[in-house]
Amino acid sequence: MAFAPADEQELSQVVAAAAAEARPLRITGSGSKAGIGRPSIGEELSLRALSGVVLYEPEELVLIAGAATPIAGIEALLASHNQHLAFEPMDCGPLLGAGAGQGTVGGLVAVNASGPRRIKAGAARDHVLGFRCVTGRGEIVKSGGRVMKNVTGYDLSKLVAGSFGTLAALTQITLKTLPAPETSQTLVLLGTEEQAGLLALRKVSGAPLEASALALLPKGAAPLDLGENAAAIRLEGPEISVAQRLEDLRGLLKPFGGGVEILGGESSASLWRALRDAEPVASLDGHIWRVSVAPSDGFALVSALKESALPLLGYFYDWAGGLVWLCMADAEDAHAKPLRAAVDRLGGHATLIRASATTRAAVDVFHPQPPALAALSRRVKESFDPAHILERGRLRAEF
Amino acid sequence: MPLLMPAPEPEILSRRSELLTRLAQILPAQNVIADETARRAYECDAFTMYRALPLVVVLPETVPQVQSILALAQEMNVKVVPRGGGTSLSGGSMPLEDGILLGMSKFNRILEIDYENRCARVQPGVQNLAISKAVEHAGFYYAPDPSSQIACSIGGNVAENAGGVHCLKYGLTTNNILGLEVVLMGGEILRLGGKHLDSEMYDLLGLMTGSEGLLGVVTEVTVRILQKPPVARGLLLGFASVEAGARCVGAIIAQGIIPGGMEMMDKATIRAVERFQPCGYPQDAAAIVIVELDGTPAEVDHLVGVVEKIARAEGATTTKVSNSEAERLQFWAGRKNAFPAVSCIGPDYLCMDGTIPRKRLPEVLTGMDELAKKHGLRVANVFHAGDGNLHPLILYDASIEGDIERAENLGADILRLCVAVGGVLTGEHGVGVEKRDLMGEMFNEIDLAQQMRVKCAFDPSGRLNPGKVFPELHRCAELGAMHVVGGALPFPDLPRF
C-alpha cells in the first residue's frame, strides 16, 4: 500500500497507525535520492502534498518551506532576491541516474547534502534553523525556531540533518538564506603534480583569501579535460575584493609553477556545478564512494588505494583534499573492506553512494561505528522511533 | 517565580562519606574538595541569583579519572554537574546540594595545533581566548568570541553553544567545532567527528553542542581555526530613533553585506557607557549602531563606503568611520564595557537574552517599555543587531524588598514577548535554570518529551545535570523510552539499553 497524506495531521495519523502495528514505512519526496543508503523496506509514505514555500523574508535571511518543496524552485526564488543557499546543495540526481533538478528540501536535509562551499559556509545542517516533523511515534514535534541565534533546548535540527528519515518524517523546514556573492572567479592552476597541487590548495585555505571552493582534478577528469592536473580555486565577493584577492592568490601560487587560467561568469559557475554533482566520477561506470578525511590525508588515501591495486577507475578531490570522490570497478563487496581499512588508518568516513540495491543491502553503506557509539546511535533512533518503522534498514541492517 | 530545584535526596546525603572514600580511590587528595569553605567558591556560576553548596567538588586531570567518577556516580546513583569556567549566565553549571560538581579546570592543555588542516585539538578547560592567543603568531584565530572569552572555557562553550559579536558572519560554536571526545554517564568514551568534515549516522557532535551538560562530559574539543582577515574597520552610526537604527541594520543586510559584527545600544546604555568610560558616543542619539567590516583592504574600504551611504539614506545623525586600529577599538570600548557601565546607573541588573526576527524590533522595544512600566523597573538595551539577539538589562535594587521578584517577572514577560513575535527564549546564554520554567512558552509537552527522550538515550538514569533546561523531571520510563506494542517488545531478540 502507498500513503500520500494531505497534511501534517493526516501524516501523523498514518504514522501512528503504522507504529501501533510496527509496520515499516518508506518516506519519499520526489524519490531522487532513493538510491542512496541501504534499501529500506515497507509501504511507501509520500510527502509530496507537503510542498510550497510558507514564508520567505529576504531581509531576515529566512525561508520556511514544506518538506516536498523542490529545491530548484527555492533556488530560483532566492536568486530573484540575489540570495542563495550558501551550502551549495549537491544535486544527487545526475549521479544516481534520476536526472537533474528533482530534489526536494526535505530530501536535501535528510541527506545533509552540501557542495564545494562546505569548507567556508558549512553543510546543510549548519543552515537549518528549525523544523517540524512527525516522529516514528506519530507525534507532531517542532524544534528550533526561525531566528539566527537560538540555543533554546537541544539542537535537534542537527540530528535530523543526515538522518535519512530514520528519526522522523520532516514536514516543514526553516532555512537560513544568505546574500549571493556579487562576483565569482575561478583560478585554475595547471600541470602541478597531484601532491603539490593539493599542497597549494591547503596553502590557499590557510591564507586570508577566503577561497570558497578548492578542488583538484587529476589529468583527464571531466569536465576540465585539459590533459594536465588542474587545481581549481574559487574566489567570491565584491568585484574589487575578488580582483585584489586574485592578485594575492597569483603571488601565493608562484612557487608552485604551472600555467594559470582564469574562469569567470558562467564557465566558473558550470565548473563548480559539475564538481558539486560529482560529475567527474558520475560519468564513469562503477561503484561510487564519497570519503571525508582531513584535507592533508586525501592524497595519502588515494595513494594507499593505488598501492593496494584496487581497480580505481577515477577520482577527484574537493574541500582542499578533505573530500575524495572515488569510482571503483563493480564488485559484489564494492571493495568496502580495503577502502574502509585505508580510511580507518587516517580517520574519517567512507559512504557508498552508488551501487546496486543488492550490493547496498550486503555491504555497510555507512561507515561502521565503535560499539559504544553504535549502541548510542540506536538508542537515539529508538527515542524517536521505538518500533523502527521509519526507513527501516536504511542506515543499518539492524534498525 | 521562585526557581525550585529537585529536593536533595536524603539517601544520597546520607552516603556522602562513602562517596568521598570512593572518590579518594580515584583522585589524589588535593583534587577532591570536601571542606565547606572551599566548596563555597563553587556555589554558583555567573547566574548569581541562585546558589547551592555542592555535595563535593572533584577536579579530575585525566580521561580515565572522569570515566571512573561518572561510573561511580552512576553506580551510587549520585547526580553530577559538569562545570568549565563557571561563567554560565543561566545557571547551567549551578551545583546541586546532593550532587558532585565535576570541575574540568585542570583539563587546560592545548594538545595539538594543525595549521595545515586549520584546526586545533584542545582540552575542555582551555579558555576561549587562549586558543586565539596560541595561534595568533601564525595569523589565525578562533572565531566565536563570547563576552566572557577571557574566562570561559571551550568545554563550557560547547555545552552552551556560545556565540559573540563575530557570530553573525562566522557562526556559533556549533559551526566552528569539528570533533569532540565525550564521556557518558556509564563511563563509555565516544569520539565524534575529528579533523574531517561531517559525520555519518546521527550528528551527535551537533546535538552535544548546546546540550547544557545534560548528555555527556566533554573531555576534548577539535576546533576550526581561521586565518585572521587582514583589516577590520568600524563605523559608529547615531540615529534619532531606535526604529531608524533598526531599519539601517536591515538595509545593510538587504544590500547583501554580512558585517563581521553589528551591535546596537539604546539611549539608556549610551548614557551609562559615557558616564563609565567616555568613548565619544553621540549623546544626542536615541540609538547607536556599531558596524565592523573585515576582509582585504580593498574590500573593506569599498564596503565602508557602501555602509556609510546606506546609513545616510536611513537618516543617521552621526557617521564616524575608524581610520586607525585605535579608533576602531575606541568604538568598541563602550560596547565591551556596556555591562559594567550599566551597573553604575542601578545597583543590580538582570541580563536577559532573547532573539527576535529583526524587523519586529520596534514593537518589541515599545512592548518592553510598557512591561517595564507595569513592573515599575527600568530597562537598558544592548543588542546583537545583525541577528536580532537582544540583551535587555533589567535594573533593580536587591536591597529593596520584592525587587528581585519584580525583575524576574519582568524578565519572564520580556521573554514571553520575544516568543510571541516569533523569536526564542535564549539566543546564546542557554536555558539553564534561569529560563527552564519558560520552556513551555516555546514548546508544547510533546516537543519537550521528545527532547527528554533524547536525554534518556544518553543518560537513562537522569543523573547528569538534572534540574536544568526541562521544567519537570520525568523518569525515562514515563516518557515511554521503551515502546511496547500489543504487549510485546518490538524486536524482542535485540539487546536493550
TrEMBL record, chain A:
PROSITE patterns named in the record: FAD_PCMH
Q: What is its EC number?
A: 1.1.99.14
What are the alphabetically sorted keywords of the record? FAD, Flavoprotein, Oxidoreductase
Q: Cross-referenced InterPro entries, in alphabetical order? A: FAD-bd_PCMH (IPR016166), FAD-bd_PCMH-like_sf (IPR036318), FAD-bd_PCMH_sub2 (IPR016169), FAD-linked_Oxase-like_C (IPR016164), Oxid_FAD_bind_N (IPR006094)
* MF terms (GO), sorted A to Z: FAD binding; glycolate dehydrogenase activity
Domain FAD-binding PCMH-type span(s) in chain numbering: 1-180
Q: What domain of life?
A: Bacteria
The record's section on Pfam families has: FAD_binding_4 (PF01565)
NCBIfam families from the xrefs?
A: PRK11282.1
Q: What is this protein called?
A: Glycolate oxidase subunit GlcE
Species per Swiss-Prot/TrEMBL record = Methylocystis heyeri
The coding gene here is glcE
Automatic annotation (TrEMBL), chain B:
According to the UniProt entry, its GO molecular function terms are: FAD binding; oxidoreductase activity
A Pfam family (short name) is FAD-oxidase_C
Question: Which cofactors?
Answer: FAD
Q: Which UniProt keywords apply?
A: FAD, Flavoprotein, Oxidoreductase
Looking at the record's lineage, which domain of life comes first? Bacteria
| Tagged with keyword Oxidoreductase | yes
Record bears the keyword Glycosyltransferase: no
All copies of the FAD-binding PCMH-type domain together span 50-228
Query: What is the designated name of this protein?
Result: FAD-binding protein
Q: Which organism is it from?
A: Methylocystis heyeri
